[in-house]
Amino acid sequence: MASVKIPEQKIILCGEYGVGKSSLFRRFMSNSFTDATDRKSTMGLDHYGKKYTVGEKDLKLQLWDTGGMERVASITSSYYKYSEAAILVFALDNPDTFHILSQHLLDIVTYAENAKIFLCGNKYDQKSRVAITDSDMEAFCEQCHNLVSGIYKTSCRTGEGVEQMFQDIARQLTEVNRSKMELQNMEENSFQVEPGSVAEAEGEGGGCGC
Description:
This protein is α/β, with parallel strands linked by helices. It contains seven helices and six strands; from the N terminus they run βαββαβααβαβαα. Helices cover 37% and strands 21% of the residues.
C-alpha cells in the first residue's frame, strides 16, 4: 500500500540578530537550549522538519533559520521563497528589536507575500526586564492592518510557550490547507459538464438537412 505524502509547510524565522531565532530553531529541533558561550558558530541556512497532527490531518512544519546570515542580501530569495508562514521574532527585553520589526514585515510581504505572519516575543524568562507590553504588541498588529495571525511569548531557555506556538501555527496552516482544498474542489466541480449535455447540444440542429 502506497504511503500518503504528508504536506510540508515551510516556516521562516525573521528578526534582528541576537533575538533568539537560532535558539527557537534548536528548541523546535531537539527541545534543547545552549548558552551563547557554549554555542558553536554555524553559518548558512539550516532547516528541520517536524510532524504535527491536527484533528485527523498530518502535516510537517519545515522550520528554516538563517544561521546568522540575516544581513547577507544573497540569501533573501532562497530563504523567503515558497514560505507558508513567517515568525517575526524580537527580544522582550530589547525595545530596539521590536521597533525595527516593520522592516522585517516589509521584507516578508515583498518576498513571501502569501505567508501567514506570526509575532513572537522571545526571552520571556527575563520577566523583570520585559520592556514590551501586550498592548505594544497589539498596537503593532493593528498598525500592520491585522496581517499578524498570532501573538506569542516564548522562552528558549526554559522552553515556555515554544511548543504551544508551533502547535497553534500547525493548526492555522491546516485550516488554510483545508480552505484551499475546498476552493479547488469547487473550481473543479464548476467545470464539470452534466452527463448528456454534450450529446444534447450536438443533437440540436444537428441534422444533415436531407
